[in-house]
Known about the structure:
5-stranded antiparallel sheet, alpha+beta, 5 strands, globular, single chain, Nitroreductase, oxidoreductase, flavoprotein, NADH Oxidase
Amino acid sequence: MNPELISIHEVTKSVSEAMNTRHSIREYDPKPIPEEILNRIFETSLRSPSWKNSQPWKVHIVSGAKKELLAEKLTKTAKESAPTPETSWPESYPSDAKKRMFDLGMKIYGVAGIDRKDKEARDQFMLRNFSFFGAPTAVFITSKFDLNFFVGIDLGCFLQSVLLLAREEGLGTCPQAALGAFPEVVRETLGLPKEEKVIMGLSIGYPKADSDLNRFHTPREESSDLIRFY
């Protein structure tokens, strides 16, 4: 299936179609998402698998004035402070992964009209994470669990469920590790207990029409390079 043949604004008819056409959306229409759609997405996502049905996630869905306040606080903190995530961000990658990551950065900056050498423009683009790329709703995923490899797998399964269910509804998403960069800001603004770790988040909303960024579909390696049959 050619993902370019399906509009990112259309609902999907199958899991395969949602999987093949989903990609990170970085420009949104401000139109609010009806509450019944958000309820449908997140209630269904609770069917995600987890180790011994431990369900290590909690979900915080933020819209309206509270979202705007959180965006203001996160952006201000990001300008003044270094990230303090509660989960360690990866620092080393295999050489083939480094190449894919570098190529992705170059392509996104190119589509956004940013010169790779323009650090100020790159920094401003990065800061857009904290205003949720203009999405009407932000989502934060937290956990009270001790974080380990298997809890990470469970949270990843949950996140993928949300992304595909949102795509089924004709919504766009952007999963963001950056939204776990300043956990104290999130905890304070949402009134979360100290033991609730802020892992990451995502922006969700209706993709902005006529956006070059939204038409950019991240490439993937050839299946023959990554999949083996025995």
